[in-house]
């Protein structure tokens, strides 16, 4: 039985392992550790784990970002990273992490989320191309892979510009 819950300090090594295993490298695992140390962007309630018994088998993180519209900044969230241990993939754990995370973000008063991810996966969860909202990535990325979702009605209305990620993302 998989449970989704807020991360706890004892989970940190397992979260590192999940991200390292899912991505096949250390960059995303290090990103999580770095973001966790930045009190300006890290939201403890939005770092969630999927647990099978006592084993962490999945993780999702949402952090604060800005959408810069020529000097006017709009608050949003970034979904990054999301990882599930390879042996647990394709069992709906990622879907449960996303649903729980989006629900918690909405409950905390956030209006939107941006993700750079698989163009065949995230639209199933309500994400749409960010370009449809005139929201741009700060770097070159395939248009279909850069997406966003409004968490409330009109949550992206009147918001456009370029996403500004926290400096920790520069290392990925």
Could you describe the 3D structure shown?
It is a single chain. This protein has 172 residues and is α+β, with helices and mostly antiparallel strands. The chain is built from 3 helices and 9 strands, in the order E-H-H-E-E-E-H-E-E-E-E-E. The protein has helices at residues 12-23, 27-36, 93-107; strands at 2-6, 42-52, 55-69, 72-84, 112-116, 128-129, 135-136, 146-150, 161-164. The mean pLDDT is 97. Strands 1, 2, 3, 4, 5, 6, 7, 8 and 9 form a 9-stranded mixed sheet that branches. The longest helix has 15 residues, at 93-107.
Flag low-confidence runs.
none
How many distinct helices? 3
Give the termini separation.
33 Å
Based on secondary structure, the structural category is alpha+beta
Principal-axes shape call: globular
The Rg value, from CA coordinates, equals: 15 Å
**What integer is the average pLDDT?**
97
H/E element string? Answer: EHHEEEHEEEEE
**Can you summarize the main beta sheet?**
9 strands, mixed
> How many beta-strand elements?
9
């Amino acid at each position: 039985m998989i449970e989704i819950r807020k991360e706890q300090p004892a989970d940190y090594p397992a979260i590192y392992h999940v991200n390292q295993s899912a991505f096949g490298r250390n960059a995303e695992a290090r990103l999580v550790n770095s973001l966790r140390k930045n009190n300006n962007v890290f939201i403890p309630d939005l770092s969630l784990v999927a647990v099978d018994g006592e084993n962490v088998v999945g993780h999702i993180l949402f952090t604060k970002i800005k959408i810069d519209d020529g000097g006017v900044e709009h608050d949003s969230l970034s979904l990054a990273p999301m990882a599930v241990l390879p042996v647990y993939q394709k069992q709906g754990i990622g879907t449960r992490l996303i649903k729980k995370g989006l629900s918690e973000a909405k409950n905390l008063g956030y209006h939107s989320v941006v993700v750079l991810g698989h163009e065949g996966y995230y639209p199933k969860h309500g994400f749409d191309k960010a370009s449809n909202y005139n929201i741009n990535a700060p770097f070159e990325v395939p248009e279909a892979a850069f997406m966003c979702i409004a968490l409330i009605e009109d949550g992206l209305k009147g918001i456009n510009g370029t996403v500004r990620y926290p400096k920790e993302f520069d290392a990925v």
